[in-house]
Specification:
Strand order of the largest sheet: 3-11-8-4-7-6-5
Strand content: 15-25%
Shape: elongated
Radius of gyration: 23 Å
Oligomer: single chain
Order of helices and strands: HHEEEHEHEEEEHEEE
């Protein structure tokens, strides 16, 4: 009956209560599909980070920097000086490796040899998986104090770590599984980001090819109502190596 109503009527005006209830049910299911489409975008955005340790694709996540290096490398070149810089951190998250990652940020040079502006007011952002959140809090709380200001400073996840502000954020899809059953990165990966400079440079790219297309139609053979959602987008990085230090969370011998 619901399928017949869709074929012959433009609105639900005058429809029976059970048909209206079915419409509400269809709307809820469509919303879930839209949320699933959003989750798919989150997966692909996360992969720009997690696939950045090797060159595996020509474009998008896993692609090379303009200089031919993986996103995270110890051999990024500086044109004007002929030198190199590293945004690749080795080792699991600890007091020592976090301090080393901050030192790498400070040492990074742009193409013209200038230093990257450091986020002295806003602070760095530390991204970890949900599995590593407790460990990260222990590290940041060890000899540190909250670095945010105001009456809600203690709930803003901003810590004063060894003299540098560090904001903790959980990368929810890190260590999750995509639609093909493949783990997205590993739960041990972590990333320290100079977010203000990254935003200013627009070095992480999200390109929407077209807005989500939602189409609902009936299968004439089964009389089933089908909702089809198609989403066109691309993710990539361009110059993000100057503003992100990444670690696979394991030492070189693992």
């Amino acid at each position: 009956m619901f399928g017949e109503r869709l074929r012959t009527a433009k609105t639900l005006s005058g429809a029976k209560d059970d048909l209206k209830a079915e419409f509400v049910s269809q709307a809820k299911k469509t919303k879930k599909l839209m949320l699933a489409a959003d989750k798919g975008m989150e997966y692909e955005c996360t992969k720009v980070y997690t696939l950045g340790f090797d060159i595996t694709t020509a474009y998008g996540a896993g692609s090379a920097t303009p200089k031919g290096q993986p996103l995270f490398s110890a051999a990024h070149t500086i044109y004007t000086t002929g030198g190199v810089f590293s945004n690749l951190q080795v080792g699991a998250l600890s007091d020592t490796t976090l301090k080393e990652a901050i030192a790498k940020h400070i040492a990074i040079r742009l193409e013209n040899g200038d230093r990257v502006d450091q986020p002295r007011t806003e602070g760095y952002t530390l991204y970890v998986s949900g599995d590593e959140e407790m460990n990260a809090r222990v590290i940041l709380n060890n000899g540190s104090k909250f670095g945010a200001t105001g009456s809600n400073a203690a709930v803003e996840n901003v810590f004063m770590f060894e003299g540098s502000r560090v904001k903790l954020e959980v990368m929810e899809k890190l260590g999750s599984y995509d639609k093909d059953g493949n783990m997205i990165g590993t739960t041990a990966m972590w990333f320290l980001v100079n977010k203000p400079a990254l935003k200013m440079a627009e070095a992480l790219k999200f390109i929407r090819l077209y807005s989500p297309l939602v189409k609902q139609y009936m299968n004439n053979e089964t009389d089933q109502s089908i909702v089809d959602i198609r989403n066109g987008f691309a993710t990539d990085h361009y110059g993000a190596e100057y503003f992100i230090v990444g670690s696979e969370g394991v030492d070189s011998s693992s």
